[in-house]
Amino acid sequence: MDKLPSRFSTPSLERRKFIENSLKSAGALALLGLHASFTNHTGLPVKKSLTVQEIMDLILKEGNLSVLKDTVDTLKSGKADQIVTGIITTMFPTIPVIEQAVKQNANFIIAHEPSFYNHSDNPDWVKNNSVLKEKQALLEKHKIAVWRFHDYCHALKPDAISYGVAKKANWLPYYKTGQVMLTIPKLSLQQLVQHLKSSLGISHVRTIGDPAQSCERIALLPGAWGGQRQVSVAESENPDVLIVGESPEWETVEYIRDARAFGKKISLIVLGHAVSEEPGMEWVAEWLQPKLTDIKVTHLASGDPFTWI
């Protein structure tokens, strides 16, 4: 038989070389701990899908956080093994926040505060709660997972909430991790109120004090610290002004009123719970996004629940 022309033998040789090179490449990938399935026919990287649990684990790892056995930071809806299509950070997972998440194709909400109107999110806190059941049904309909990020959020160093507030108020030069006291350039109480309203985007606040009082040493306590802790800070630190999210009116408020009646130069600014901690969850989104390049992280403010008339 005549010998085949070289043009017929060349492909076999090239094919053998291709197979050998492919095997070598696969071996290199194995040594690097990579998988060939991470590329598609275009040669471009394939986006890696992550579950709710994997993202929660990533947050704990990146935040150097130890797993807490006794915590309210649990899944309130959805499943840990569901694939995440997008992430929303917020203060409260309100109905408008849930609806906006659906529009953005985001099925994982990370909320700082409760979903179901009590600290532990106990659905039987009020028996046969029709609003709670309707909210659960809405979350189930759209397969949205809600994870509360409260205890872990405050365990971050720095505390994500106080850091976020200080950042948005342009007070980071005066902020120290783990401390509630800040010494800022002198402002009158009136000027301080205006600064907080404009920088934090708050329309109304409540105050006790002389608008002309000079304020320099401030105690920054966003959220709901409780009357005992608020008064303890006031006693131990002697600030010019106590800035809180919300305050029991029969506790801290009356303490401040009596303190001023005795001649103490101390004032109180009540920002509102949701709006006082919102900058912290906004910062959480900024912190998390670079760690999840294939998943969009968006902050949606739950906003001030009150209308002032």
Topology of this structure?
Elements: H1 6-32, H2 52-62, E1 75-77, E2 87-90, H3 95-103, E3 108-111, H4 130-141, E4 145-148, H5 151-155, H6 160-168, E5 181-188, H7 189-200, E6 206-208, E7 214-221, H8 227-237, E8 241-244, H9 252-261, E9 267-270, H10 273-288, E10 297-299
Parallel strand pairs: 2-3, 2-10, 3-4, 7-8, 8-9
Antiparallel strand pairs: 1-4, 5-7, 6-9
Helix pairs in contact: 6-10
Strand order within the widest sheet? 1-4-3-2-10
Largest sheet, strands/sense/barrel: 5 strands, mixed
Number of domains: 3
Write the element-wise H/E pattern from the N-terminal end onward.
HHEEHEHEHHEHEEHEHEHE
Q: Provide the CATH top-level class of the largest domain.
A: Alpha Beta
Our Rg estimate from Cα atoms comes to: 27 Å
- Uncertain ranges: 1-46
The average pLDDT is 88
Morphology = globular
Structural class: alpha/beta
Number of helices: 10
Determine the N-to-C terminus distance. Answer: 102 Å
Number of DSSP-assigned strands: 10
Summarize the structure in words.
There is one protein chain. β2 (87-90), α3 (95-103) and β3 form a beta-alpha-beta unit. α6 crosses α10 (273-288). The N and C termini lie far apart (102 Å). This protein is an alpha/beta fold and 309 residues long. A five-stranded mixed β-sheet has the order 1-4-3-2-10. The longest helix is centred in the first third of the chain and has 27 residues, at 6-32. It has helices at residues 6-32, 52-62, 95-103, 130-141, 151-155, 160-168, 189-200, 227-237, 252-261, 273-288, and strands at residues 75-77, 87-90, 108-111, 145-148, 181-188, 206-208, 214-221, 241-244, 267-270, 297-299. The protein is globular. The chain folds into three domains: 6-38; 52-156 and 278-299, NIF3 (NGG1p interacting factor 3)-like (Udp-n-acetylmuramoylalanyl-d-glutamate--2,6- Diaminopimelate Ligase, Chain: A, domain 1, 3-Layer(aba) Sandwich); 172-271, 3-Layer(aba) Sandwich (Udp-n-acetylmuramoylalanyl-d-glutamate--2,6- Diaminopimelate Ligase, Chain: A, domain 1), CATH 3.40.1390.30.
